[in-house]
Amino acid sequence: MRCPYCKHEDSRVIDSRATDDGMTIRRRRECSACGKRFTTYEVVEKLPLMVIKHDGRREVFKRDKILNGIIRSCDKRDISMERILNLVNEIERDIRNTMDREISSQDIGRLVMEHLKDFDDVAYIRFASVYRKFADISSFLEELQNMQQRKQREHGKGTEAHETHEKK
């Protein structure tokens, strides 16, 4: 493996460990010429997944587009990069588990929103405002009301289950 610092072609592995549920191997390497350390990742080659855009064009799936969208949605929130990366991993896993070689950009957007609902309310609304192209404040308010009703239903179910458990 070529050293990213001095471009020397000889390095040695000093540590290896599996990541991403065993789908990736992370290797710490040390350059035999300059002694600097760097990290490499070994992943299983995946068949390309194609995204069908709104206008019918097709492009290769880019995980970074999801990552960047979620990072923007989480801007100035107290959310660690590790949590964001785990969320992106879940979303990508769900996309690839469909076993389809093509997916529409609308389906990807819906999937991201579905995951963000339980991840962070503010990030969800920020992403939804871009994805759904809110035209005005009433669109925004409608989505907020839908979120609030969903939270109340979920809270009600949890309360009912708790009350039923206490009666027993």
From TrEMBL:
Its cofactor is Zn(2+). InterPro entries: ATP-cone_dom, NrdR-like_N, RNR_NrdR-like. Residues 49-139 form the ATP-cone domain. The keyword Ribonucleoprotein does not apply. Residues 148-168 are annotated as: Disordered. Binds 1 zinc ion. A zinc finger (unnamed) spans 3-34. Residues 155-168 have a biased composition (Basic and acidic residues). Pfam families: ATP-cone (PF03477), Zn_ribbon_NrdR (PF22811). GO terms for biological process: negative regulation of DNA-templated transcription. Keywords: ATP-binding, DNA-binding, Metal-binding, Nucleotide-binding, Repressor, Transcription, Transcription regulation, Zinc, Zinc-finger. One of its GO terms (molecular function) is ATP binding. Negatively regulates transcription of bacterial ribonucleotide reductase nrd genes and operons by binding to NrdR-boxes. Belongs to the NrdR family. This is Transcriptional repressor NrdR. It comes from Mitsuokella jalaludinii.
